[in-house]
Every structure is written in structure tokens, then in C-alpha cells.
UniProtKB/TrEMBL annotation:
Location of the Alcohol dehydrogenase-like N-terminal domain: 26-84
Cited Gene3D superfamilies: Medium-chain alcohol dehydrogenases, catalytic domain, NAD(P)-binding Rossmann-like Domain
Record keywords: Metal-binding, Oxidoreductase, Zinc
InterPro entries: ADH-like_N (IPR013154), ADH_Zn_CS (IPR002328), GroES-like_sf (IPR011032), NAD(P)-bd_dom_sf (IPR036291), Zn_alcohol_dh (IPR050129)
Signal peptide as annotated in the record: none
UniProt-listed Pfam families: ADH_N
Source species taxonomy: Bacteria, Candidatus Falkowiibacteriota
Protein name per Swiss-Prot or TrEMBL: Alcohol dehydrogenase-like N-terminal domain-containing protein
Single GO molecular function: oxidoreductase activity
Amino acid sequence: MKAAVLETPRKIVVREVPDPVVGGYDVLCDILACSVCSGTDRHLFHNDPYFKVQFPTILGHEAIGRVTACGPKVKNLNIGDLVTRIFNKLPEDSGIHLHWGGFAQKGVATDWQAMRADGLPETEWRRYTVQRVLPTHFSPAESTLIITWRETHSFLKRLQVAATDKVVIIGSGANALAFVKHSHNLGVETLVIGSPKRSEHFRRSGANSFVSYREVNQPAAMKALGWGSADVVIDAIGDSSSLNKVLPLTKSGVKLGVYGLDNVLDYHINTSLVKGDFSFYSGEHYDEASVHDDIIALIEQGKLNAGEFISPEHIYPLAEIEQAFAASWSGEVLKSVVVMER
């Protein structure tokens, strides 16, 4: 099969690699689409020390695939099923490492329900609980957003945001927009600090207020918009300097969620700016699988719309994966999608 292999930092090549290894509880899938993550994929591409990347490797953790063959122990997945979060499993002697491996023509999903029913320990099947069958009418390209939506929704649930809370979201990328959508669906008031070029888009998607990240005195700008304080702050970028700017306007007991990864190894909260106690929530911890049914229901109800995140102009064939990366990471588009031509 063909895959986009990150040979060394910032050098990605589409080439032939071995087909996936399919175990007894696995299903082989044709990967149909995989969206580009402006956080994880970008940091892996640039060899961020946080990830301890081993090269060569295949990226892509937001893949959607269709089942083409089933292992002998599979009971709950069928040929033709559309499945979320396809991983890859290559032969041990392939010489290729995997960071999920969704930017490839084929991949593997695992029947974790059968593993659980057969009495295998949870440590062996829990990571596959994110692999779920989707409604047959769902678009593969649009369904790549389900991963982003599940991750951010489950993180927001960890923060136990109340309907009366006022939430500040730092960032204006796809993750920030996802937090806005979830908050809006909960009836929670949000203020976004981000790029002014995205202001109208975020407002149309449910943000109540918007402040440019270029604003020198962000607390003053927030007060001018009627924001005297904030109960929750979510940093969707991962830059402590951005978080520290808004801390003077937070309440005692504020919940600080750091979801982004940009400067995760050098993140310093200025506690002298916080009024009293605060709770810290790391973006490394969320339960994506636990909110799958919630996300599907929100899509069916029209409350989550992929068209607010992706556009047909930014769906790229695998051969043009470098253009897809550039479009996402330059801010040209919120999210680009790679489709696997055959």
C-alpha cells in the first residue's frame, strides 16, 4: 500500500510500505480520509522533543476507514462498516514506526467488544474503544471531525462546566472552534481570544465575544465587553504567556484547562496573578470514547456541522499531503483533509 512516511523531521514522502498485519480480533480497512491535526501532526512533523519521535514514521490519528476483511474472532464489525479512528499495524520488520498511521491507504480496526466479551484484560482492548461504527450515510471526509469533536467534548466534560459559567477560550484554530461549539450547545457564554481574521467565523459559530490576541491589555478589552470575570479558561494553543494575560480577570476557584501543546515543556502559570485557589486540567487526559454517542447525536441534530471546519477546496489527495499540511499550519484553513486515492 501507499503511505505518507515522515522519513526525517520535515521530510515526508509518499511511498510503498507493507500492508497492515491483521490479528484475530482485527478488521482490515480501506482508509478513506484522514484530517490534519494542527497540534499533534505539526509537532511530530517538526520533531518536537515532547513526542520523542522515532523515524521513519507514519502520522495521522484522525482517520476514517471502511471494513474490507474480518479476522476469525471478530463478532461486532462487518464488511462495509464505516469506522472511526483507524490505526495501523505494520510487520515488525518493516522498519517503520507508527504515530497512529492514518495517512495510508489501508489500516486496522479492532473488535474491542469481542476482546472484552472473551475475557481479555482491559489493558489489551481499552485503547481501541475509540473505534466505532458510524451511520451509513455519514461522509468519510466530514467524519474525520468526529475525532476532534470527541476529544474536545470529553475534555470539556472533565472541567464540569456549569451553564452559568463564563468560559474564556484562547486560540482560533479547529480545537478552539470545537470548544466554542460544545460550549454553545451547553448554553454556556464564551469569549474567544484569537486571530482577528477569524472573529466573524467564530461569532457565527456561537462565540459570544471575541478579543484579538494582539490586544495589549486583554483584561481591559474583556471588561469593555462586559466580562468582569471568568470561571473557566481553556488554552487551546498551549502558550502560558497567553494564559497569564487573562489570569487577572479570573475568579477564585477558576478552572484552567491547558489543551494545546505548543510550549508544553516550558509552560509556567504565574500563580501571583490568580485570585485565590485554582484547578489545573491537563490536555493529555480525556476519555474520547465515552462521548461518542453524544457527538453522533449532536451531528444528527444539526448542532455540529463539519462545514464550519472544512471546505471542499481543502480536501487533498495523499500525493499532495504536503500542501494539506501547509494549508492547515499556515492558518489558511481551520482544517484540511487528506483522501486516499487508489
